[in-house]
Write a structure and sequence with these properties.
The protein is of the alpha/beta class. The protein has two domains: 3-144 and 180-232, Spore Coat Polysaccharide Biosynthesis Protein SpsA, Chain A (Alpha-Beta Complex), CATH 3.90.550; 146-179, no CATH class. It is built from seven helices and ten strands. Strand 2 and strand 3 form a beta hairpin. The radius of gyration is 19 Å and the shape is globular.
């Protein structure tokens, strides 16, 4: 990262809507002694440099109040159309950028931290940011995928017969197959310039920041929540 880039401010964005079907009310539900959303906020505050902004984007007054207990201001509530199941993360990010732009604040990059990855560590955020530079679209946290298209993922051919998804199917040991990754949802470091040009699905210059499975849990079900509680208590 150049000196100029290092001096540019960063927007740390925590996105937390009120509606949640898998784990109702999860963003304000206590995990390890504090509301889930506060884990992400505290991590952002620990990493943010002077001049950076930590923003909680939510449509919920309860989540807003929970966020303010961590010592940040929540200057807006997200409009309802950006809090539905159909709303995209991209639209939510652009909404936040537009809000700050209207108030005279511009950023070089956005660090998106989803509350549903509470086992992420502050060092994960720092290391992902260190990989970022202005000539890439995004640094994204990943973990090694449990399924591998070279080894144990299959597709049906024209006759309905299963064939390996990728490659010749000759790998007999997982460790010999090419390593493949999946996004784990913990950290996204994105260029504002790239975001202004279009959604993340169009990003081609993506650098992975690899995390272990032990810190890649994404809270989507009650079972996930129980796992996170156990890991925070060091029971696992």
């Amino acid at each position: 990262m150049t000196t100029e880039e290092a001096g540019n401010p960063t927007l740390f964005l925590i996105t937390a809507r009120g509606g949640s079907k898998g784990i109702p009310g999860k963003n304000v539900r206590p995990l390890g002694g504090k509301p889930l959303v506060c884990h992400a906020i505290d991590q952002a505050l620990a990493v943010a440099a002077p001049g950076d902004t930590v923003c909680l984007s939510t449509d919920s007054e309860k989540i807003r109040e929970a966020g303010m207990t961590s010592g940040i201001e929540v200057p807006f509530l997200r409009p309802a159309e950006l809090a539905s199941d159909a709303a995209s993360s991209y639209d939510v990010i652009i909404h936040a950028l537009d809000f700050y732009s209207a108030h005279g604040l511009e950023f070089s990059k956005v660090v998106l931290l989803q509350p549903t990855s509470p086992l992420r560590e502050t060092d994960d955020i720092r290391r992902a940011i260190e990989l970022w530079s202005s000539d890439i679209d995004m640094v994204v946290s990943v973990c090694e995928s449990k399924s591998n298209p070279y080894y144990n993922e299959f597709e049906a051919d024209e006759q309905g017969m299963l064939r390996i998804s990728k490659g010749d199917g000759h790998y007999t040991r997982r460790q010999d197959a090419p390593k493949v990754y999946e996004y784990n949802g913990a950290v996204y470091v994105m260029s504002v310039k790239s975001l202004r040009e279009g959604p993340m699905s169009g990003f081609t210059r993506r650098i992975p920041y690899e995390m272990p499975q032990s810190r890649s849990l994404d809270l989507d079900t009650e079972f996930d929540w129980m796992m996170a509680e156990a890991m925070i208590r060091k029971d696992l």
